[in-house]
Amino acid sequence: MARKEAIEASRIKSEFLANMSHEIRTPLNGILGFTHLLQKSELTPRQHDYLGTIEKSADSLLGIINEILDFSKIEAGKLVLESIPFNLRDLIQDTLTILAPQAHAKQLELVSLVYRDTPLSLIGDPLRLKQILTNLVSNAIKFTREGTIVARAMLEDEREDSVQLRICIQDTGIGLSAQDVRALFQAFSQADNSLSRQAGGTGLGLVISKRLIEQMGGEIGVDSTPGEGSQFWISLSLPRARDTTEDQPLPALHQRRTAITDNHELARQALEHQLEDCGLAVSTFGTPEQLLGAVEAAHLAGQPFELAVLGVNLHDMAPESLGQLIQRLERFACQALVLCPTTEQTLYHPFLPNAHGQLHAKPACTRKLRRALLELVQPRRSQGELKAIPGQRLPKVLCVDDNPANLLLVQTLLEDLGAEVLAVDSGKAALQAVQQDSFDLVLMDVQMPGMDGRECTEQIRRWEAGHGGQALPIVALTAHAMANEKRALLHSGMDDYLTKPISDRQLAQVVQKWTGLTVHVTRDERSSSAYGGSELKVLDPEEGLRLAAGKPDLAADMLAMLLASLESDRHAIRAARDTGDRAATIERVHRLNGATRYCGVPQLRAACQRSETLLKQDDPQAQQALDDLERAIDRLTHVARQSA
User: Fold this and answer.
1) What digits encode the pLDDT tens for the residues 92-147?
2) Which pTM value belongs to this model?
3) Are 253 and 377 in contact (CB under 8 A)?
4) Contact assessment for residue 176 and residue 199, using Cβ atoms and an 8 Å cutoff
5) How far apart are the C-alpha atoms of 433 and 420, rounded to whole Å?
6) 168: nearest Cα among 153, 158, 157, 181
7) Which of 80, 77, 76 has the alpha carbon at shortest distance from 20?
8) C-alpha to C-alpha distance for 305 and 312, rounded to whole angstroms
9) Phi, psi (5° rounding) for residue 588?
10) Following DSSP, what letter does each residue of 240-308 receive, concatenated?
């Protein structure tokens, strides 16, 4: 009876925790959601800092709540595992990609090594497996001050229909004592329980990982030496899935001579394996100087290297030096791809001739490497094709949006421009359309039920890789393109993004940019002359009304507020420029940029956006952009007076 009562009490406790976790998460999501909304409004730098602190605290609290919820579900026996096909290498590399900024902030090197004989197409619960790996890698980052974290996947045993895998996460961190190891997989315990402990958390992460692995029929363990580091491992048997063709070498890359360098030996080894898996003929070099010498010698000998992949960091190579190295490589007809830590991308960005195509974050994902290298050897469009061609064919565009009104709007705008359009209302329908027909461009809504825009893009990229075709340009349609949002979209395989509401002019530009085919925008001659012949209008009352949710009074008020502050904004920006205070100039331009978001002033908004971007990149063209911004302020003031 006592045993039954204890079991029942434990079950009731677990159900209560699970229910309470849901109850706490609901208001917490509200806090996070409205914090994000508030961050998009016009704020002072101090207010931005306060909101950033709120967001980090709420995110941290949500992580703890999620762990308690998972633990409660497992305890209550309510956690159900999925059984679906997944790619093991992609899963491991995606996990490291997500955690790379944390590791790079501590100047740690992240490496993934998937051994050649390891089957990649498996069946299991990829979401829960990723959760386990995320926990193990996060812990490794947390307890490692310097050095390397390596994720290895290898085959232990195989049968006809299943494989026994071993995945290890090895770090060069503080290590664990035998006593720490014994307490490690117990609920609510941490390796460092002292009052001065530096790492937080519930102590549930490893317990949840252990329970999940055991529910999958596997086991988890750790080998560790204090002061030297730890190696956590999981051993797991999973059924094989039907092999996909996505990992077959692409004909366009087959045996192309490629030179690689990275001063980190393991990272260089991992990169070599990845590129050989892509079908390339790879030669490795310890330093960029050795690589450059070999490329020059090969060029003179008539056996040139066509590609170079450079793993760099600021400690070993300054951005200016990298720019010079790439120029010298290009003289020998060798195209370069650069891999650098996530925390250093913005510093290298201005020094690359084609940073969007050439600059990628460490650690490299194999599928992204394939796509990037394919783009280097087979560019989608040469620059010469961007000019209008008499009698050219019509561009064929696939539009994807689950909102009927949005879909109809984009379809109508494109058809008015002269494009041939197929409109579909789901990610699944878009994937089928791409597989059955050929398109010049895809306009993809991001938020959709079922298969969202990012997932659909990843599926399309996977299908393209398997069929060896050129990558189809995919442009995201999003209502809010913050910097981190844009990074996430490009990370999922999208090429560009358009922020709603979308104009016919924006659509025409994006069609020409990504297809090389020109469509025709019908221009209002009066507005063209009134606005100085510029492509963007100085004042667009219709757009202002849209941005004010169709309320004329609100639109008028928002414009009046902007106009009232323009002169003081101009003086503040000029004063910051005159004193050479870049940070103050960025802050003033950013504030004006924020104010333009709520009014129909396309030209001023574009000038603000360009100025802020170039200032943040410390680009020499920023001063010219600021001059253009002053002229945009003058034009708006003049046109507003005339309209009044």
Assistant:
1) 998 898 888 889 999 999 999 999 899 999 999 888 898 899 889 999 999 899 99
2) 0.56
3) yes
4) no
5) 14
6) 153
7) 76
8) 19
9) -70, -40
10) BPPPPSTTSPPGGGTT-EEEEEESSHHHHHHHHHHHHHTT-EEEEESSHHHHHHHHHHHHHTT----EE
8 Å CB contact between 134 and 92? no
Enumerate the β-bridge partners of residue 360: 339
Is 146 in contact with 140 (CB distance < 8 Å)?
no
CA-closest candidate to residue 494, choices 443, 449, 422:
443
The answer for residues whose C-beta is within 8 angstroms of residue 263's C-beta and 6 or more apart is: 286, 287, 311, 313, 316
Residue-range domain boundaries for the chain: 2-75, 84-239, 251-377, 385-522, 541-643
| Ramachandran assignment for 399, one of left (phi > 0), alpha (psi -120 to 50 degrees), beta (any other) | beta
Beta strand pairing call for 148-158 and 335-340: unpaired
Q: Burial-class residue 364 by CB neighbours within 10 Å (0-12, 13-18, 19+).
A: buried
Tokens of 503: 């104009």
Query: Which CATH entry fits the domain spanning 251-377: 3.40.50.1370, 3.40.190.10, 3.40.50.2300, 3.40.50.300?
Result: 3.40.50.2300
In CATH terms, the fold of domain 385-522 is Rossmann fold (3.40.50)
Question: SS3 for 116?
Answer: coil
Q: How far apart are CA 210 and CA 510, in angstroms?
A: 49
Q: How far is CA 410 from CA 44, 402, 417, 508, 523, in A?
A: 36, 12, 11, 12, 18
Neighbour-count burial for 579-600, b at 16+ CB within 10 Å, e otherwise: eeeeeebbbbbbbbbebbbbbb
Q: Are 310 and 322 in contact (CB under 8 A)?
A: yes
Q: Which fold has domain 541-643?
A: Four Helix Bundle (Hemerythrin (Met), subunit A) (1.20.120)
What pLDDT digit, counting tens, does each position of 547-593 carry? 766 777 777 877 888 888 888 889 999 999 999 898 899 988 888 88
- Reply yes or no on whether the pLDDT at 66 is more than 50: yes
